From TrEMBL:
InterPro entries: DUF2959. This is DUF2959 domain-containing protein. Residues 42-98 form a coiled coil. It comes from Shewanella dokdonensis. Keywords: Coiled coil. It comes from the Bacteria.
């Protein structure tokens, strides 16, 4: 954050967090504008995507370890895989939450920007600002589409993980594990595709940040 925030102001911001306009207004009084908040939220979304990539990969590794389990306690191997699946679900939820936060500040920023353009009296400056707004909105739209596309790939992967984990829970034995190896092969392909999509989204975010930062 650009300026040090007093504990009283932090408390105020937390109290106003449920009301976006009040929140943005409080932040602006401290010299932290919507543009700054948006860049930070895009970076947060990137970070959550990177964390999700690691978590989905980790979940797949534990499921593969369960598939190739050779001796020892099957329950222990299953519990490890289940924990990683649940962590992947939490990571996916965080990605969605942070993308939603990007959208909320973007709507507020672009509305404010458009309103302020109308207050510029000189036509040449008004036109330049409008062109910059249009360019930024195009870049944002492309980035958001990429974010949502990668987000949409998480749900079917999580569903497949859940199906397999529930099936194994009810039939935890070597024969059952062997019977679903084909399912895990498909899951590996889907997770690889998801990670590639997330990388594309992160690249689009980097382009947008470069366009937004001075």
């Amino acid at each position: 954050m650009k300026a040090l925030v007093s504990s009283g102001l932090i408390s105020l911001i937390l109290l106003l967090g449920g009301c976006q306009s009040a929140y943005f207004g409080a932040m602006e009084k401290m010299g932290y504008h919507k543009r700054d908040i948006m860049v930070d939220r895009v970076k947060d979304a990137q970070e959550s995507q990177q964390d999700a990539q690691k978590q989905f990969s980790s979940a797949l590794e534990e499921m593969q370890a369960l598939l190739h389990h050779n001796g020892g306690d099957l329950e222990v191997a299953y519990d490890k895989a289940k924990d990683e699946y649940e962590s992947a679900q939490s990571a996916a939820d965080k990605v969605s939450d942070r993308i939603n936060k990007v959208e909320s500040v973007a709507d507020a920023l672009f509305d404010e920007w458009q309103d302020e353009i109308g207050e510029i009296s000189k036509a040449s400056l008004r036109q330049k600002s409008q062109r910059k707004l249009n360019q930024t909105q195009r870049s944002y739209t492309q980035m958001l589409k990429s974010m949502r596309r990668s987000e949409s790939k998480m749900a079917p992967v999580l569903t497949a993980m859940k199906d397999n984990m529930l099936y194994l829970k009810h039939n935890l034995n070597a024969q059952t594990i062997a019977s679903i190896k084909g399912e895990f092969a498909n899951l590996q392909t889907d997770i690889s595709s998801l990670i590639k999509e997330m990388n594309r989204s992160i690249d689009e975010s980097n382009k947008f940040i470069a366009n937004m930062e001075p």
